[in-house]
Amino acid sequence: MKFTLSWLKEHLDTTADVHAVADAMTMAGLEVEHILDPAAKLKPFSVAKIVEAVQHPNADRLRVCQVDTVDGRKEIVCGAPNARAGLTTIYAPIGAYVPGLGVTLSEKPVRGVVSNGMLCSASELELAAESDGIMELSDGLAVGQPAAELFGAEPVIDFEVTPNRPDWLGVAGIARDLAATGIGRFIDRQPATVPGRFPCPIEIRITAPEACPMFAGRLIRGVKNGASPAWLQARLTAIGLRSINALVDVTNLLCYDRARPLHVYDAAKLTHGFVEARLGAEGDSFLALDGRTYAPTPAMCVIADAGGVLGLGGVMGGEGSGCSADTTDVFVEAALFDPIRTAQTGRDTGILSDAQYRFARGVDSGFVISGLELATQLILDICGGEPSEIRVAGAAPAPPEAFDFDPAYVEGLSGLAVPPERTVEILHTLGFATEPQGQALRVTPPTWRRDVTAKADLVEEIARIVGYDNIPSTPLPTLAPPPGGVLTTRQGRARLARRTLAASGFSESVGWSFVSETAAKLFGGGDARLKLANPMSADLSDMRPSCLPGLIEAAGRNAARGFPDVALFEIGPVFAGPMPNDQRTAITALIAPHGPRRWDGGADADVFTIKAELMALLDLMGVATEKLQLVQSDLPSWWRPGQSARLQLGPKAILAEFGAVHPSVLKALYVAGPVYAFELWLEAVPEPKKKAVRSKPALNLSPFMPLSRDFAFIVDEQRFAGDVARAAASADKALIVEARVFDVYRGPGVPEGSKSVALEVRLQPVERTLTEAEIEQVSTKVVAAVAKACGGQLRA
Amino acid sequence: MTDPATLEVQFLADIAAAPDVAALEVVRVAALGKQGTISLLLKSLGGMSPDERRTEGPKLNALRDTVQTALTARRAALEAAELDERLAAEKLDLSLPAPHRRKGYVHPTLQVMDEMISIFAELGFAVAEGPDIEDDFHNFTALNFPPKHPAREMHDTFFFSPDEAGERKLLRTHTSPVQVRAMRSQTPPIRLVSPGRTYRCDSDQTHTPMFHQVEGLVIDKGVHMGHLKWTLETFIARFFETDQVTTRFRPHHFPFTEPSAEMDVRCDRSGGEVRIGQGTDWLEILGCGMVHPNVLRNCGIDPDAYQGFAFGMGVDRLGMLKYGMPDLRDMFASDVRWLAHYGFPAVAVPNPASGLS
């Protein structure tokens, strides 16, 4: 929404300049986007007179003019057909920036003759959309008069209107709020009644009151339509509107002045004696003023007569019934259209007219007849003519209801101490009616403020007019944080994982929660319930089942840029379905090892690197990792078979999966392998036992030296070394603290199809130093346990 | 019998001449081994008369001690020399690179989220979370959005296809649904922040289809806009870590708050980048207001007994302002060079003792 200061001053008696007005608007809730100053771009231009114009020696279309300018007499080459001696026009000196052309003038010969400036058209000054020649100005103007002064180019305020305030879509509405802030006095211009001289011959019918509850109209006979007077043209062009003709310009003026859209019909085209507001019907079609043909649907409100659709009600009129220079009788429409329907029609047709914008947000139901009277008066003043009486069909909806308001609530809700008299004064200035009701008030909002329905709304009115700046900053009463901190266990663990992984060399990535369908399907997703109906692009169509596709693709993008060595992690949501319980938080880490080659022959990260990170993280989260089952079978399809595993407490309690990503999956995502990754689901990690105190259990250290014994077992190739170690460790729970694999051997001395697994078993005596016999006893148990669990034989 | 004095001279010479530990061992065995000269002489003492023993004993013992001492000293010297020689031979070129160690960083958005949570935690705010896939009630209706509000349109909000019951799920456009869930399940007083991912159909330099928000909610008796103002002023000063921050509150409109406001921060935009705490421009940084009575009612809270405020801010955007990232889209690109440049070391945990950053 745009307006000029002079326009505002029609409704506001103020001495404030444009910046003070803009500041007052902003602090009252009208967010000023910017102040456009067209005078700035007109600055170099001024009035000049052509003294002589002769044919250019080398060009048929050009003239060489002697021009009296602010800089003295200049020789200027001009191509305009109307460049003639005696013409008063606009001069631009060398160095001027011509906005309509987008060029800065420089001194250069035109077909051999140097032009010392330029004579300008209205379009070159951006005063008109197009022009046929240079400007033709009144001969009375003095040479050198600045163009900015001449064209009344004053600053324009451009601001954003929040959807709750349709009344701000009219300059008068803005003036009313500004007056309340104290920057000026509101000039209440109530339209006078224009008596009709004869009954309106055109009947008005409403057959869809839900779409058009009220429709007022009148005929004005014998008008003389044509160009609008200069003041009206200037007012419209200043805010970027095009002047069409006087009748249309009057409707546009009131649209911006009073937020009151109107429509004018050429009555000669209304040949059926009535107009009707109805819903669109099968077969309806009409050519709108934008030159396009629309087929109204039953969801839309149309204005029609027996000959068909004349226009989309509140949205756009039709080409066939519009006013032109030939119009002598005009039918003026002032109606109310349902906001929701009008908004939908705008979206469905793509028409975003000024009228549609206003009706969609809600137009003052108390200004229908007044708007029509005001339009009548303007038309009579500009075009002459004789008005009929006003016809009205339907009725305006009931005015807003009164409600009780205790002025003390202003301070209660806003913290702003406002004397009750001031509260009442502000309400009155804003158009609210008040009645004392004991200590409280009974407040009736005006018809243009249907956004105000309850007492909190009134607090906002008072607070914004008194000024949010005056609200006293008040410390929030101290509320001690919960003694255990504010984070839940899960939140704390996510934070722990973030810091741990970053410390281990992984960089944190934030990927989209949605991935392509291909990527989703590769990782078990693609559920129709998780497909967006309106994705930004095909790449972002499905809620991700895992963070892995995003991280793998990120690795690929980095590789494509020449940085293939990446270690990334992400902590974020993954989706198994549309319900809240289907969402889990995954901690996902990935290494694509392409580190520098090593002079010492050392190896880069591998699947055991990622296992170590995962185990360390689980351990930090308080998981008893030694109790976890490692299962290497039946992993999901995106893991490389044989080089991936899941960690679980049981088949239904899977905490994590890790391993190498399947080469086919990498190929499908255009990423060169290998890629090692883990995925850990926070919700699956058991909550720690709640403890009343933070003290740790007593530390019982054995005074006796631990000792270790090595064993090597021959087991079947298919056996997992971890199972051998686990069996050994369980052989004597009192004495064995750890059994760790330190070598796996295949070759001479070990039968084909078998392998030798070497373990170091660590014993911790608790009561006394062990005797050789006791150690031997434990060794026997270890051998027996491994034989029983894994069929392992002690290697000779 | 060989004279002890002669023997001493001979053995000391042999010891001194031993070139290495092995040769020295040969001398030791010759002198003090089981069949060594000195050992045999000492054994012969047993066959001597007491008088003889009295004169020879001390001499032989002295001889043994002298040779033993010389052997020990020589052995230490030879071992030291051998160690020196070995160490000299085992020199390493320490200019060679150590094994490569990857460096990791915390993403700036999550770092900033931790900063925010840290500040609000001190003010007594708990942290609440909720699902990203929401329903119409929690995202719109409960929050007093009118039925045909533009935010409910496909061009603003991501929707899923309707399910069997005709219900159309959506991706939450703010973390306010978390507040709705909290209000419906807790009794006031409530003081919480809700961080999380949010989604809107938008994409340009300052908008991405997904971004992060931290929203806040305080519901209690007698909480008013002055408290809101203080809370956010306190927050912003601490967040930007400067006393220079000037803010202002400006009326605005949101369906879920009444009165509503936007908070602007003073900044300088002259150099193409935004500098907080300088200049004469204002930059909108968050929206806030007093929770609309309808929202309280929708959440089962009596608006005549309780009132409160809510606010919401873009985490990525405030992070960009504080740390100078120029383009929001980079936040989600996972470019390792960008992460290394704008990321934070793991140990930089925001806390009130050391400051946030």
Would you write up a description of this structure?
The complex is a heterodimer of chains A (796) and B (357). Chain A is α+β, with helices and mostly antiparallel strands. Chain A has a seven-stranded mixed beta sheet with strand order 30-33-34-38-37-36-35. In chain A, strands 6-5-4-7-12 form a five-stranded antiparallel beta sheet, with no helix packed on it. Chain A is elongated. By secondary structure, chain B is an alpha+beta fold. In chain B, strand 7 (257-268) and strand 8 form a beta hairpin. Chain B is rod-shaped. The chains are: A alpha+beta (796), B alpha+beta (357). At the A-B interface, helix 2, helix 8, helix 11, helix 13 and helix 14 of A face helix 5, strand 1, strand 4, strand 5 and helix 8 of B.
Mean pLDDT of chain A: 92
Total strands of chain A: the figure is: 42
CATH class value of the largest domain in chain B = Alpha Beta
What structural class do the secondary elements of chain B suggest? alpha+beta
Largest sheet of chain B: 8 strands, mixed
